[in-house]
Design a protein that fits this description.
Length: about 250
């Protein structure tokens, strides 16, 4: 839903602002909007990423059974990566000439490399400890995600950073990456989870009518308790009655 709203906004040519470019090109497609040396920067795309990419990371890292502190600092680095990309894209040309734009690019790239290390190495250790099936699903989805995310800085350098490709080409480039990194990733992850018990990942899912203070395996016993109690009561009653009758006789 968030990505759909973002693309609806960009399709209406909203959620963008003109920014003077550092590299002026001779091609009319990238020479600037309205005859100026400016380029449309769609900041709404970064708002979309700020909301959706942490959710993708959480889905992935929870699959590996990662502890929450590691998940949270990885999400924080993801936010740093996106925000530095946005700031770098919005820097005016006078500052871009002094290297400020590429400074933000370096900060974002460093944050991304740490995220990539966590996803490709640290989390795989956790996934492998759970089982081969979990490790296989995580490896497929994790490799898919990091491979696609490596292409985003390239798209950024060719569009907002270097002003090499036109905004229309930029939209196609990012659009293909977003489709592959979100709905396709989600389909792969859901398919992989179809035979995995969430309890193995440390996730305890309960029904709305169960006591949240009970352990997961207590719910099954709780459901069978009434029937078992009635059966036990009838058996004990019959046994006690027969015993008492014998003693009385």
């Amino acid at each position: 839903m968030v990505a759909a709203i973002a693309y609806f906004t960009m399709g209406a040519d909203l959620g963008q602002t003109p920014i003077d470019v550092e590299f002026q090109r001779s091609s009319s497609k990238v020479s600037g909007s309205n005859g100026n040396n400016s380029r449309e920067i769609f900041y709404v795309r970064y708002i979309d990423w700020t909301i959706t990419t942490p959710l993708l990371l959480m889905d992935l890292l929870l699959t590996a059974g990662m502890p929450w502190p590691t998940i949270l600092y990885t999400v924080l680095l993801d936010e740093v990566m996106i925000i530095t990309g946005l700031i770098g894209a919005l820097v005016q040309s006078s500052y871009k000439v002094r290297g400020f734009l590429w400074g933000y690019f370096v900060f974002g790239w460093a944050a991304f490399l740490w995220v990539a290390f966590t996803v490709t190495y640290t989390a795989r250790q956790y996934a492998g400890a759970i089982g081969n099936d979990v490790n296989r699903v995580y490896t497929i989805c994790g490799t898919w995600t990091i491979f696609l995310w490596f292409l985003y800085p390239i798209a950024w350098g060719l569009s907002e950073g270097g002003n090499v490709i036109a905004p229309d080409s930029e939209a196609v480039f990012y659009g293909i990456l977003d489709i592959m990194a979100k709905p396709v990733f989600g389909a792969l992850l859901l398919w992989g989870h179809r035979n995995i018990d969430p309890a193995r990942l440390g996730l305890h899912v309960r029904d709305y009518n169960t006591d949240p203070t009970l352990a997961p395996d207590t719910h099954a016993a709780e459901k069978s308790t009434p029937g078992n109690t009635a059966t036990s009561g009838a058996t004990n009653g019959a046994t006690n009655g027969a015993t008492n009758g014998t003693e009385t006789a």
